[in-house]
Amino acid sequence: MKILIVHSYFLLIIVFGSPKIGLLSIFPNIFPAVFGMGIWGFLNGEIDIGVTMAAGVTIGIIVDDTVHFLVKYTKARNEFGNSNIEAVKYALQQVGPALIFTTIVLVTGFVSIATLTNLTFNSHMGLMTAMVLTFALLMTLISLPVLLMNFDKTKINSDEAFEKLANKRLILRKMEQYKIPNSLRLTIGNKQANEHFIQVIGSIIK
To answer: Mind listing the pLDDT tens digit of every residue in the chain (206 residues)?
Structure first.
């Protein structure tokens, strides 16, 4: 499983061209299996071969969900120029319903196997798979967006911000002469001007 996780990490780095995205994708890919095995061990007292196999098998499905989400996220960031928050919203709108539907179908199927079979191995594997897939959905739709919104921010310095604002016909004053580096001064205007500034600054700080 360790080899699979390492390979998945480097493949995601290659696909998305970002070590940061690859690192952030590890959490929704690994922790569902970790949580599932931890809860199973706590409730059942032991982890058998069926549970272990289920944890390994589900990684492939989980990575697929993560890739679908990140493809839409990076498309919004790189092609549309959206901020990380806007990109998360776009990804959730585009793939969220599909991920929920496929997870419901898969969980229902594995729970049915666990319920109808007379073999302990199949029963444990079905229940564990359903549990891990449920955790994976929650982490893909909740934890991954939170990670992206907090750790995939693009920082710009005051000179870059000054130039971008100037292109939008907004002139601010640089503060180097007051010995305040990497800062800009804004003169408060009327409500309409302030709302326009907020809209523009939100479009350049992504």
So the answer is: 566 667 777 777 888 888 888 888 888 888 898 888 889 888 887 888 888 888 778 887 888 899 999 999 999 888 877 778 889 999 999 999 999 999 999 999 999 999 998 888 889 899 999 999 999 999 999 999 999 988 887 666 677 777 777 887 787 888 877 878 777 887 777 888 788 877 777 766 65
Gap between the Cα atoms of 17 and 35, Å rounded: 29
Could you give the CA distance from residue 122 to residue 130 in angstroms, rounded to a whole number?
Answer: 12
Asked whether 140 and 65 are in contact (CB, 8 A), the reply is yes
Q: How many C-alpha atoms does 62 have within 13 Å on its Cβ side?
A: 33
C-alpha span between 72 and 87 (Å, rounded): 8
Residues 54/125, Cβ–Cβ less than 8 Å: yes
Looking at the chain, the number of H-run helices and the number of E-run strands are 8, 2
